[in-house]
Every structure is written in C-alpha cells, then in structure tokens.
Amino acid sequence: METQEQKDLIKNAIEQAKLNGILKYLPNGELTHAPFSLSPYAMPESVFEKMAELTVPFNELMIKVSRNTDFLIHHLEPIAAIDPFLKMLLKCRSKEINQNCQLLIQRNDFFIANVKHNDYKQNTTPTNEITEESVLRQVELNTVSASFPFLITRLYQLHKNLFEQNKLPKVIQNNPLDAVVDAFAHSVKNYGISDSVILVVVQSNEKNIFDQIGLQQHLWIKHNIATVRKTLVEIHKDGKLRQGHLVVDGKTVALTYFRAGYTPDDFPEEQAFKGRQLIEESSTIQVPDMGMQLSGMKKIQQVLTKKEVLADFVTEEISRRFLKTFAKMHTLDEIINTPEGEVSASEWLSNHADDYVLKPQREGGGNNYFGSDILKLIPTIKKEEQKAYIMMEKIQALPHSSIQIVNGQAETLNCISEIGRFGVCFAENGEIKNNLDAGYLVRTKARNVNEGGVSAGFACLNTITGFG
Ligand code: ADP
Ligand code: MG
Predict the structure, then answer these.
(1) Total-model pTM
(2) How many A from CA of 3 to the centre of ligand 2?
(3) Residue 69, CA distances (Å) to 35, 106, 280 in order
(4) What CA–CA distances, in Å, run from 7 to 12, 402, 403, 450?
(5) Cα(307)–Cα(328) distance, integer angstroms
(6) Does residue 418's CB lie within 6 angstroms of at least one atom of ligand 1?
(7) Which residues have CB under 8 Å from 350's CB, separation 6+?
(8) Where are the beta strands (DSSP E) in 239-372?
(9) What residue's CA is closest to ligand 1, atom 6?
(10) C-alpha 439: how far from its chain's center?
(11) In terms of CB atoms within 10 Å, which of 88, 110, 172, 227 comes out highest?
C-alpha cells in the first residue's frame, strides 16, 4: 500500500515527465509518458568507473573492425548466403569508401552479475548484492540507432530535481544528449558546406519519436543545425547525388543519422534499398556507415569473444579487460567444450535451453529466443542455417526491488537493470581524432521478463545512484 506521500510523489513525477518531453505513443496512438523508474539503480562507484573506462577502447575497436572489409566479409558472407537481409546489407556497401570521416555513436550494454551467485534461482528473495567482486557482462554493442540520448538526459534532470527535494537518492550526472549533438555539430563543421543539414533516417510509424525530435530540437537550439526526417523510400524519391554530395529537398546533407535501416521492415520495397545505397554512394558522413553497422552484428560480437581474433585489433592489456566482460558465445554448428566433453552446440543447447539466449542476426529487440521457444525453434533450423544463430550464455543479472511507472500506474517489482554506456568517436581516414564516453542509459525491467524494450512498455528508463 502506498502512503499519501508516495502517491503524491508518483503523481508529481508523472506530470514532470510529461512536462519534460519524456513521452511515447501507445500502439493505439494515444500519448503517454515513457516508462520510467522511481528507484535509481544502486551500484558501487568502482563498478561504474570500470564500465565507463571501457568505452574509449571499445569505440576504437569498432572503428578498426568497421574498416576491415575482408574480416567482415569473411565472417558475414557465409551467413548472407542464407539470409536475404544480410545479403542486401552487404550489397549496399559501395565498392570504394567515399567518406573520409566516420562518426560512431554507439551504446555498449551490460548486466552486472555475481559469478559466485550464478546459481540464483527465480524464486530467491529480492536483494541487491552488487559488490566490488561483481562482474560486468556485455550484452551487446549497438552501433546503429543507439537510442535514448534525449529521454535519458531528461530523466536524469527529473531525478536530480527530486533528489534536491529530498525525495530520491543522489543520482550520478548524465548527459549523453549534449555529447551526441556536439559530435554532430563538429562533424557538420568538418564537412565544410555552409547551410548543410542533417538527414534523420526514420521508420514511418516510430513510437519512440520523442527521443528523436528532442535531439533534433536540441541540435537546432544549441548549434543552429537543421534536420530533415525521411524514410529510406522517401530518400530514394527526394534525394540525389550532386558532385558526390547527397542532396535532399535542395539541401546538402552533411551527415546522415540512422534511426532506421536495421530491420527488414525498414525495407518494404526495392526503393528503400536504393535509398540506402544512395546514401552509401555519397560523401555524407554516416552515423553509422555500413561497415560500422555490420560490425555490430551478433556474429561479429561472437567471433570477437575469441582471444586470437581480438588480438588482431587490440593490445594484450585491452584484450584482457574486454575478455573479462564477455559471456560465452557460439554458433549452433560448432563443436563445443562442455563439462561432459566435446558435443555439438545445438545438442548442448537442446539440453540446457534455460542457460542460453539464442540470437539471429537481427537488431531492434524482440528477435531473440529464450527457454521453451529455443526448444521449439531448434528442430526447425536446417543444417546450413545453424551458422546464422548465435547461442549466448544467459547472464544472471543481480535482482533488486524497483518502483516502475508504466502508463500512469506505479508498481514495486523484483527487477534487473541493464546499463548502457554511450560512446562517441570521430575518425578521419581511420585515424581517431576524438574518442569519449558520453554517459549512460539504464533500463530496469521485471526479473521474469526476458526481453522487452522501453518503447514496448516492458522496461523503464532509470538513473544510477553510486555508493562505496
Ligand atoms: P537487440 O539487438 O535485438 O536489442 P540484444 O542482444 O540487445 O538484442 O538482446 C535484447 C535483450 O535481451 C537485452 O536487452 C536483454 O534484456 C536480453 N538479453 C540479451 N542477451 C542476453 C543474455 N546473454 N543474458 C540475459 N539476457 C539477455
Ligand atoms: Mg541491439
């Protein structure tokens, strides 16, 4: 039962969320606040720092991988042979690199797990036992459409206000919004054409639109840079190449920011493919270019968990730090080492489905398989398709209690939190000019929910309170 004071706090927080643009559309078109938590995620400051320090080397890794075409083709082409979407993406890559400049805006997602408590079962009492011994486990690196820089910056401001009124604990400073728009402004200036614009590639029925137009508004207010929103099909229709520049509605596009183009749904017709190719063929700075987008594929994440592969891209010291954060990953057609000896990965998975997540080469949430769905899927996967699926050890994130506010309703739940670190990196001809950690995202969700994003209403945006 909530006290009157708690009820007032919840009501006031919802009103402030709406006032500050922390909004989303429901599937029926109704406007509501984006789901948010009123319980900042508590973690030791040392763990927070450790996570932040990984961003710069991970940015550098992704820039290097994105420029290594032979490496990407070697690992992705065999999958493209059975995956038309990946085949199409590979086809979009232009023969030569037309852009000297690369801007990477990525988000590296982690859970905090306690290896000693790896045998946690769903019915244990809710505790928050994060200690200095807890380990960081990478979920995945999002190199395309890393969302929430606007909404999370606004939520930080809301939680900070509530802290100043003694209603929440102190939260750790967070402002990915400024870092992202500053990086955009720097890139546009570097492009060097006056009166140029930023093209935002969008989905036609985007539910998370406020995160995008909030960022566009901030670009205008802070840097006087105009933006144009278009789908890939519209870009094909309204765009053209002029002396190598991408021109849309008569304006030169200095930078193209993808908030779409990572799912087959964004390519409903041939024109969308042509729109994507037009962008790739021009000199516009792409966030991300196709090399960067491909570097974020699950298959690439899986091969980079191998020490000998990682060694081609990073120093031994960095490799050691990265490897500590990686969960075990295999393709379904592998023979793997297990406590019961060498067995086929798919057979092992059939007997241990609850210990893994099965991932196809897709982005954007809702594509992965868990538990009994894995068991249903395995018999339907043909031998030649097995290499397209990655099985990843299930990370047992440490649970904690949290007040979740979804569509006007507050509920206290046993939750887990996924923490993303935004990374911003600018490179010219592969040489890194600017590389920084740009803040964090926390998504807190009920412990028994496998997936589910913020826009889908399952996970709540959150901030971090540090201790220790
Ligand atoms: P997508 O690219 O579709 O977002 P992710 O790999 O980020 O796919 O997975 C989506 C969600 O599934 C994550 O946000 C996380 O909640 C859950 N998830 C993914 N991998 C794991 C894992 N190894 N252990 C536990 N949960 C996971
Ligand atoms: Mg992803």
Answers:
(1) 0.95
(2) 39
(3) 40, 20, 15
(4) 9, 15, 12, 29
(5) 12
(6) yes
(7) 375, 378
(8) 239-242, 245-248, 251-258, 285-287, 329-331, 335-338, 341-344, 356-359, 369-370
(9) 140
(10) 13
(11) 110
**Residue 382 scores a pLDDT above 70:** yes
140: exposed, middle or buried (Cβ count in 10 Å: 0-12, 13-18, 19+): middle
Tokens 């649970």 sit on residue? 399
464 and 172 Cβ atoms separated by less than 8 Å: yes
- Which residue is closest in CA terms to ligand 1's atom 9? 365
pLDDT of residue 121: 41
Exposed, middle or buried by CB within 10 Å (0-12, 13-18, 19+), for 372?
exposed
Are 211 and 154 within 8 A, CB to CB? no
Residue bearing the CA closest to ligand 1, atom 8: 365
Name the residue among 434, 430, 429, 440 with its Cα closest to residue 185: 434
The pair of structure tokens assigned to 47 is 């763990």
> What CA–CA distances, in Å, run from 155 to 34, 163, 381?
10, 12, 42
Residue 379: CB atoms within 10 Å:
8
- Residue 105 sits at the vertex; the CA angle it makes with 58 and 176, to the nearest 5 degrees, is 100
Averaged pLDDT of the chain? 94
**pLDDT tier for residue 274 given thresholds of 50, 70 and 90:** very high
Could you tell me which residues are beta bridge partners of residue 241?
246
Give the whole-angstrom CA distance, residue 367 versus residue 418. Answer: 18
**119, pLDDT greater than 50:** no
Terminal-to-terminal C-alpha distance of the chain = 31
Ligand 1 and 175: CB distance under 6 A: no
Phi, psi of 113 (to 5 degrees): -120, 160
Residue written as token pair 């036992």: 129
Give the lowest-confidence range in 33-42, 92-101, 226-235. 92-101
**What is the rounded CA–CA span in Å between residue 338 and residue 341?**
5
Q: Which residues contact 77 (CB under 8 A, 6 or more apart)?
A: 90
